[in-house]
Each structure stands twice: as C-alpha cells, then as structure tokens.
Amino acid sequence: MSAENGSLKVTVWRGDGATGAFETHEVPRQESQTVLDVVSWIQQYADPTLTYRFACRVGMCGSCAMMVNGVPRWTCRTHVGKVATGDSLTVEPLRNLPVIKDLAADMDPFFDKWVKAEAVHHPSETRHDPIRPVDTETEARQQADVGIECINCAVCYAACDTVAGNPDYLGPAALQRAWTLYNDEREANPEAILDAVSGVGGCHNCHSMGSCTQYCPNELNPLAAIAGLKRETTKRVFRRRRND
Amino acid sequence: MTTQIDTHDTDILILGTGGAGLFAALHAQQSAPEGTKITIAVKGLIGKCGCTRMVQGGYNVALGGGDTVERHFMDTVMGGKWLPNQDMAWRLCKEAVTRIHELENEVGCFFDRNRDGTLHQKAFAGQTADRTVHKGDLTGIEIISRLMEQVLSRPVEKLQEHRAIGLIPTRDGSALAGVLMIDMRTGRFRLVRAKTVLMGTGGGPTMYKYHTPSGDKTMDGLAMALRAGLPLRDMEMVQFHPTGLLAGDHTRMTGTVLEEGLRGAGGQLLNGSDHRFMFDYDAKGERATRDVVSRGIYAEMRKSNTTVNGGVYISMSHLGPEFVAEKFKGMVKRCADCGFDLAGGKVEVVPTAHYFMGGVVVDVDTRTAMEGLYVAGEDAGGAHGSNRLGGNGVANSTVYGGIAGDTMGADIRTMGALREPDPEVLEAEVARAMQPFSKKPDLIQPLRDRLQEVMWDDVGVMRMADKIVRGQAQVASIRDDLMEVGVSDDTRAFNLTWHDWLNMASLCDISEVIAGAALARENSRGAHYREDFPEEGDLETSYFTVARQVDGALEVGREDVDFSIVRPGESILPEGEPDTLVAAQ
User: Fold this and answer.
1) What is the model's pTM?
2) Residue whose C-alpha is closest to residue B262's, from B340, B343, B337
3) Which of B66, B147, B507, B565 qualifies as a FRET site for B464, CA 20 to 30 Å off?
4) Which of A105, A136, A151 is the endpoint of a domain?
5) ipTM of the prediction
6) How far does the CA of residue A96 sit from the closest CA of chain B (Å)?
7) Which of B48, B153, B340 shows the shortest C-beta gap to A61?
C-alpha cells in the first residue's frame, strides 16, 4: 500500500438505529479510491465485524447508498477526493430508514411505499398482442422518459425532510415512478395511480424543498414529477366537482 | 455454541432475483394451483443484486424485418462454436419472442423506439441481423426494476439477505427436500423445505483478478450443485470482456465493464508506449470479437507493453471529446465520478472475466437429474456452448426463468407432501459453514487476492496444460489455507467476514472445476483457448465436458454434442438466404 498518499481518518457508525456509537479508523489513502473502497478496507483489514451493503460497484443497483459527511450518496461512485474534508470522512447509514446494523439500512419501508403508490404497470395488453408502436415525441411520453432511469437507490428518500417529519409520506422515488407510469400510454389504470398518490402520505404532502432533485445521483427531477402529480390530482378534483 | 436450525416450509422456492428468479416467480404464480405458496430468496436485496440488472447492451430477439428465429438460432450455434445444446438454443430463440412481448405488454418495460414507434433493434458482434432490443445502454435496469415492481406487488414471500448454502436431498438421495440457508441479518441457519426449487443464483466468475459481476456473485449455486453430485457442463468456458476498467488492485471499480460500443464506435486500444496494437493480431483491429481482443490485450500484457497499472489504454478523444461525451454519456460520467476522463483522455483497461457459459446439466424445461430441483439462467449450462453472444444472456435468463416457473407450477400438481431432508447431509452442511468459527481469526482478503491471481495467471485468457496443473495445485493449497483461517464468533448477525469465508469456499470449489475442465478440453473453442492446442478441432466430433463430484473427488469426462437440429457446415436457413442482413461497417 502506498504510504506516500497518506491516510484518511474515517468515522463510521456502529450499531443499530437505537444504540451504537461512532468508531474511527485510519485508512490508507489511494489515488483512485471510492467511499465504498474505504468502507470495504475497514471490514477487510481493520474491523471484520463492520457491516455494509453493496452489489454492482458501478451505480446500477442502488444498494450501497450511505450518508457521507452528512450527504446521501452512492458510495461506489463517490471518489474520496471529491468529498473528504481535509483527511476525514464520516460514513453513516442512509437517513430516514431503519438501521439493520452499522451502515446497512433496511430498505423495506422504501419499497413498501413504492407498492403503496401503485408504482407498478397495470397491463392493458398481453403477451399475445403485438407490441404497440409508441410515438416518443408526445408530451406524455417525454414526461415518462425523464424519470424512467431511476434505480431506486433511496438517495432522494434519505435527502427528503418531509419523509423525515412524516413517516407516512410516500417519498420522492415512489411518486416519481407513479408519475412515469401515469404518463405511459400503455398504462391501463391511471386513475388507480392518482387515487394512490392523492391520499394520506400522498403527493400533496410535498413541500417542494427540492432535496430529491438536488441529490439524485442520476440527475433526475422527482420534484417536477411530484408537481405533475399535484397538478393532475387537483385537476381531477375539479373535474369530478363539475361532473357531480 | 449449539446450532439451532429454524425450519420454514413453502411449496415453490426460488433462489435468486435476477431475470430468471423474478420471471419464475411471476410464471409460477400464473401456472401453479390456487393456494400454492411461493417464496423467493436472495443473497442481497430483491432485484438489486445479481447481474441481469447490469446488462448494458440489450435483449436478442428475432422480430421480423427479415430476421427469423432460425437465423437467431444459427447465430447462437455458430457463436457457441457448435457446442450449444441445440434444443436449448432453439427454445431460447423461439421463446424470446414471447418473452419480449410479455416484458413490454405485461411487465411494463419500455424499450427504445424507432421514429415510426416500433421497437428499435441493433446488431451486436456475431449477429447477422439487427436483433437487440434495448433501453439505451441500461437495458438491465429497466427489465429488473419493472420485474421487481411486479413481484413486490404480488403475494410472494420474500426472504432477503438469505444466502443458500446447501441443497439437502432426501435420505435416499433421489429428490431434493429443501435448501439450507443463512439468514444473513440474524446469522441463524434456516432450512426451507419446498416441493420444487429453482436455482437461479447466477454464475459470475469472480475468482479472477479482473471480473465484472456484482460483488455478491461467488458461484454459490454451482458449488451447491457440485456437492449434491449433479453433473456440470462446459465448465471451462469463461467469457472475458476485453475492456474492464483498471484503476488499481485496491478499488472495487477495477474490472467493471467499459461498454463494447466504445470499440464499435472507433475507440482505439493503445499499449504502454502508445502503439495501436490490435492490428498486430487481427485484421479487424479493435472491432474483432471479444475473445480475440481479450487475447490481443493479454498478449501485450505478457510482453509487459503495459500502462502504469499493468493494462492498456482505451482512447476515444480522436473522435472528438464532445461527440464521445454525448454518445456515451453514462460511461463518461461513470469514469468522471471515478476520476478518469474517457472523452478527452486515455483510460486504462484490462480484459475482465464477465460471464460463465458453464453450468448444471438441465433439460429444455429446466429440470435436472434431481427431482424437485430446477436450474435456469447463468447457473444452467448448454444454451450458449463455448461462447455467449452479447444480448443472449438476458434473453436466456428471462426465457428459462419463465419456463422454470411454468414447469414447477405444473409439476407441483403431481407432487404429494414435502419431503424429509437427510439429517446427515444437513448436519454436514451446517458443519461446513461453521468451520471458520473453530479456527483462529485471520484476514480472508489476502486469500481471495491469491486465488484471483492464480486463476488469472494459470486458468485465464490463454491456457496451457502445465500452467493449468500448476493452477490446480495452487487452488488446492489456497483451499487448505482457507480451512485454517477462522472468523470471530462474537456475532453472526450480518457478519460479512463470515460470508467472505463462505464465498471463498464456493469460489475454490468451482475454480477447481474450471481448471479440471480446461485441462480436459484439448482444443480451442470460443472462450477457451489452449496455447498447446490452438486449433478448434474436428467439428463433426465436437464434445462438451461434464464434471461431477464422485465420493469427494472431481471427475471430468467428455460427451458428444448431439447435433439434433443442424450439423456443422450446414444451415437451417432457406436456400439463397444471405449470410448476413447487417450492412458492413
């Protein structure tokens, strides 16, 4: 290991959500080094009991997000040089989720809300039907396209102060997915989606603070998607009143 | 510490949540009798670990426009150098058509379109038609995220962060009774009994110094199958991708794929002295097939014509940095996040172990030699033979995952009660997993590094009998050392170091099989290259290797390829069909 690069002072959370403490390790610094590499080094060489989670290593799976110096990030794609304050780094489990152990958060509540937001395609056709031509230039399709590359890493969910204050709030990722589906012309039940996002914990809880959009590592814009849902659900209320 | 085993019963158990596992869950739900309990278990989080998600290129499927299932089949068989099980390759190509309709119409995937709104298809290397359906260069994310939503919203029992460690047969060995797992979060053993089990844990050759698969992939499925005595075929067939990122031994970024398209678009490979070397090896230069380019780079590395970290460079800047940044947005951003300038500078690359063609011997319905056990996806051998075409991987896992779901849903109707597990096998598997707790704790990573060096040097891109034999001895010695390395028993809950130890045990087992099969194949086919047997050998008498563990010892044999649909040199395309429908580049 190249000692000439110096070392990092890395503070990591140990314990579960309720009890625990920070621990500090000295980690050799390298030229090409991500936060995930640092966490891995601690487990492999300094403290074999440290728990964290990762899978793909390249920003495709969304398993390795943690709080790095207080900011939610994909640790696999975060270069140490870009985030270390001087020679120190603090790594904590993702905010707004229960902690299983150390740096591994329980993502179940995040996915439970994904399901609760009706964020699943309701088919209008079957495998026996031809694939429908889709005009990619329509306004709706373009609205759907901008959010489609979400990898459900929960960085936006961890960044969101509304989630922090309101445990029922569905959160930016699930709502953005709902908006994407709502705009998909193949979707059989857009009304079910609007129902799901307009109830308790729905899109109208959003205070438009925009942390989701600010921190999304994929540069997506959940804030705009939620605004879209707010607009459509509100329009529907007026529409229904007119029809009463 | 006494060992308690929790027991858990279900009807259909699925191991893995890649393309195979998730499709199996959906199809099992559609085909099994009402009231059937379906459980899906995964080493990480649902849909997040595994490799289908990491598919960049896309999904091969013949959808007309001149392309046919016959043409897709011929490309698959020729790409596999006449080693594929032809019935499996045929079923793959045929059912890919249904599966892509299912993905688009029922699962809700959205794939890229042409201007007229129809699906866009492109041609990967080795294909004779524009066949690959895709979503930009992140096709796997779209497929897995959509499948994940469908499974999450259905009444399927989920066991996350549960790793399977042993297939437990009945006392007479005739059928599978259940699967022993570790609930990683609590560290407790859990025996899950099921009438049918799909193993779709994915292969993933991560025993090589440079490798692409996700970190959770450690050949656990194949190691379990080996211990259960099942036959494994084509185990010498490890596909190397020519351009893995090289950023030093200490970073997990090293080995991850820089996409194929970079070479296709005109990317140049330069050695340490900036010489563009690929034309020294092949007239197609950087556009030669994956195996040829991997060997070219490897040859430069052996001559020490290398970069700082011991690889070569890929250079794109002559195409114009803005053009590169626009066309390969995701790749350029990924490199930039990691500190490299792909658009304007040179990035170090190295061949990297990517996909494993070998796997459990199965029939076209995913059944195995053991009643109750089904295998699909990268854990199953046969469909690709000696090489997999880009775009056939995700087609394979989704097609056969769906078939497995249908088959289990049908078979379960004639199955009675759950089977009783063999207590001796169960005890042996628990003891195997507990082994490190009885030894003095020590570092495991140095052993992983050693294994990866040995496999890379001696059983890697270019192979030779004496080196393979040396490699076998090294792997055996690493395994012996592993058995002496302990893990602290302070807490078993989410103890990653215990799992590192178990990962190493699986990797050692399968490394031994890869080496044995590589020694048994005395010719060079597809991904397997023997410097002492550089010719492909007689096609008419093509054989595939079959490895199995008998009384604790590895036996590797050869079986003749059954040309059940087409013989070497012949074609099933109609007379007068052009060789390729793809315009020359």
Assistant:
1) 0.97
2) B343
3) B507
4) A105
5) 0.97
6) 18
7) B48
